[in-house]
Amino acid sequence: MMVLFAKGAAFALLVLVLLDLFTLYREKEGLEAKRLHDAKLSNGDDNDIKVVLKSFYGSNLNAEIVDEIPHQFQRRDISWKVELPAGQEKTLLYKLRPVKRGEYSFGAVNVFLSTSVGMIQRRYNFPSEALVPVYPSIIQMKKYEFSAFTNNLTELGIKRIRRIGQTTEFDQIKEYVRGDDPRNINWKASAKSTDLMVNHYEDEKSQPVYCIIDKGRLMRSPFEGLTLLDYAVNSALVMSNVALKKQDKAGLITFSNKMSSVVKADRRSGQLLRILETLYNQKTFYKESNYEMLATYVRRSLTSRGLILLYTNFENLSSFRRQLPYLRMLSKKHLLVVVFFENTELEDLIQKEPDTSEGIYTQVIAEKIALEKDLIVTELKRNGIFAILTPPENLNVNTINKYLEFKARGMI
User: Lesser CB count within 10 Å: N end or C end of the chain?
Assistant: First the structure.
């Protein structure tokens, strides 16, 4: 009796295996899968990656999908177990956040199909190899461009700055609408019309706006996976785009122990692409920065007065004072803004209540470093140099605010 039962069980098992084989392999090409993503990924941002599956089977199947992502991410969790409906398409979405510029290599998309019985798995391997470049943050560039020119600035923390004066560049005469400055009413034109007419003026245009990036060793400090250098690179792209949209000329300079890259300020077609490609190709060994060389180059090469946003970092007063004479040289002919970074980890340490003598000592040192950062800002102002001391995550907002403030005040 037991022998008959065993034979029956074995026969049933064989039938199930054959049924599974027939169900999974009766379709020669029963499945399609592809990976979709942007041609360029954005550094420091969550980039959307999609895996699209299309089934040609006549029944529902269980699928396990494993996507081979670039080794730089060091992740092994990009896999799903889903039910794949018969003859339908299914899209899976996940996000990748690169923290270094460069080329990232994607591998194949692997799909393991099984029926509800689960006796057999059929593996599909879809060659989806792709070499994808990771550029400075195009996502942030588009976000701030869209907000800056659709009047959604306050949602991102960008202030609406009251215009203190106006330029003398006349634009046109228009009918008065609510919100226009009554001081601009053109009484002669109004007398000839049944409506009030006002003069409209344009902002000054074609002013040089240079982003200068220090690639020295102090820009190597990390914050949320990105170095301060990459925060500066992303911000330079955002600022260049905003300046070009405001009809100013955007330019770029990078330096460390020697001059690295220079893109002359311009607003012709293709300028943003030139800046983007230059930023993408920046490489550094984080050596000591030569400010004397930078000041000499700027004095000789940038003959027209413009706005200079200098992205750098100072950790203490002594290192700052060594560079102060060269910062003064830069500010003589140009409107100079020194952009450097708060150490947010120190701020957290200062707020934390110490419970040991070592903790008290560490907190005192942290307070001293934070105080020196504030003293650097004070000393820059005393020398007629504008400063932005900012947490890395607020870098774009604070630099755009300062630029718009200068435009509103007619300083550039």
Answer: N
- DSSP E strand boundaries for 159-273: 170-175, 197-201, 208-214, 222-223, 226-227, 249-255, 259-266
Task: Report how far residue 215's alpha carbon sits from residue 289's, in angstroms, rounded to the nearest whole number.
Answer: 7
Spatial separation of the C-alpha atoms in residues 79 and 6, rounded to whole Å:
38
As a whole number of angstroms, the distance between CA 156 and CA 174 comes to 31
Residue partners of 182: CB distance under 8 A and separation at least 6: none
Which residues is 209 bridged to in the sheet? 250, 307
Mark 134-163 as b/e (b = at least 16 C-beta within 10 Å): bbbbbbbbebbeebbeeeebeeeebeeeee
Structure tokens at 110: 């692997």
Q: Which residues contact 397 (CB under 8 A, 6 or more apart)?
A: 156, 157, 158
What's the order of all strands across the beta sheet hosting 249-255? 259-266, 249-255, 208-214, 307-311, 335-341, 386-390
Asked: is 26-135 a CATH 2.60.40.10 domain? The reply is yes
Structural class in CATH, domain 138-163+204-408: alpha beta
The string of DSSP codes covering 55-117 is: E--SS-EEEEEEE---GGG-----EEEEEE-TT-EEEEEEEE---S-EEEEE--EEEEEE-SS
Domain layout of the chain by residue ranges: 26-135, 138-163+204-408, 170-201
Single-letter amino acid code for the residue at 57: Y
- Scan for tokens 């400075």, then name that residue: 136
Stretch 206-230: mean pLDDT, rounded?
93
Q: Which residues contact 64 (CB under 8 A, 6 or more apart)?
A: 79, 80, 81, 111, 112, 114
CA–CA gap between residue 215 and residue 260 (Å, rounded): 9
pLDDT band at 15 (very low <50, low <70, confident <90, very high): low
Neighbouring C-alpha atoms within 13 Å toward the C-beta of 403:
32
Q: Tens of pLDDT along 111-146?
A: 999 998 878 889 999 999 999 999 999 999 998 887
Q: Smallest Cα–Cα separation from 371: which of 361, 359, 360, 363?
A: 363
